[in-house]
Design brief:
two-stranded antiparallel sheet; globular
Length: 218
């Protein structure tokens, strides 16, 4: 049996993610400094550290707000690659595999899982590099399918509903002012006339009043 891999992240990065042991008991793995060891479903710990560092360079925290690390982007990407998307369940994967126009999207043979594994090998010991050297490494692969996926997934993980593992504490939605997946704003129309409208965001599970699962849990 494969040894379970973990990644240590800030406790706040758990957001709406529920963690359980194999016998469905709540997981309690908090360390002394307040961080949490989260079990990984796809990445090894070393791979998860590389992805965390790279995503942080793509979407760093600054004076305007938290970045990819605080939003738990690594958990989002790990869960997506472990699920149906990672193995290309819903993409036509027969040949011919040819170069095409950008409008046709990715036309290659490799699955998202394979693209990540190959791309991560090329980054080497990325977390140990100084920020300037990390930026150089990422610029060198800007035109590759791996970087395109990593950048897209970093943004998705920052702005997704927390049920998918990212956007911890709805910090991405707070940053852009998205109020959440509400069907109607009729009750808000006559409130605070003439003033900017800035509703506190709510996740889908908060809207429905019950837990919800994402497609990656198939």
């Amino acid at each position: 049996m494969k040894r379970r891999e973990f990644i240590t992240i800030p406790a706040a990065s758990l957001g709406g993610l529920l963690l359980f042991t194999l016998d469905r008991k709540p997981l309690r793995a908090q360390t002394r400094d307040g961080s949490v060891r989260v079990p990984l479903k796809f990445f090894t710990e070393a791979e998860a550290r590389i992805v965390t560092a790279a995503a942080e360079r793509i979407l760093p925290g600054d004076e305007s707000g938290p970045g990819a690390t605080e939003a738990g982007v690594i958990i989002y990407i790990d869960r997506q690659l472990a699920g149906p998307y990672g193995r290309d369940k819903n993409r036509y994967t027969k040949g011919p595999f040819v170069e095409s126009v950008p409008e046709h999207g990715y036309q290659g043979r490799a699955t998202p899982r394979e693209i990540y594994r190959e791309g991560l090998r090329g980054l080497g010991d990325f977390p140990a590099l100084a920020p300037a050297l990390q930026n150089e490494k990422l610029r060198a692969i800007e035109k590759t399918p791996f970087f395109a996926l990593l950048r897209t997934h970093t943004i998705e993980g920052f702005l997704c509903d927390p049920m998918h593992g990212g956007n911890a504490g709805l910090i991405g939605w707070q940053l852009v002012g998205y109020p959440g997946p509400l069907m109607s704003y009729r009750d808000e129309i006559d409130k605070n006339p003439g003033l900017p409208w800035r509703r506190k965001p709510v996740s889908l599970s908060q809207v429905l009043g019950r837990p919800v699962k994402g497609w990656e849990e198939e």
